[in-house]
Amino acid sequence: MKPFFAILFCILLGLPSTVRAGSDYDYQLYKNHENYGIVVFPKESISKDLDNYLKSISFEVAESGKAVMRHGSKEENATYMMPLDVQKKHSIEKFIVIQVLGENSMLAGIYDPQWGLTLPTTMYQLEAIKENILKTLNVFRGNNRQRQTRRFPSKNTPKNANFSTSGYNIIYR
After folding, report:
1. What is the pTM of this model?
2. Which domain holds residue 71?
């Protein structure tokens, strides 16, 4: 039943913007030093856990405002995201779009000028979103190993653990 609602939701999001022009979604744009972005909407539905996670992987809040319906670079797919002038202002070419559906349920998409806008219909929980963000950022970077994002220790990691710089060797005391 969940896939049906996800597909129905995506169909509704794909309606032309003139039909849904009255939408009041606000977005929040997070940006890192590499000029990659993560757009989350609706802003008021962003959980503290998601916000803290994005900040923990070096993303900072760059801007907020009214979300607009936009298509990908190949005029395929459409979803709410930041306006194009905001994207240009922050020099962001590649970004992730996250739509918060409920307390711990989200849809995620990827915008890349080469690929266009990719919008899978799978709903994700926060932990899966975290994993996919890291993987997507590494795909954005390509072969640039200097900037690879590594997963930070989880909340289950013992407080007395030390981490070496070469791949998190955990030393228990």
Report:
1. 0.71
2. 2-171
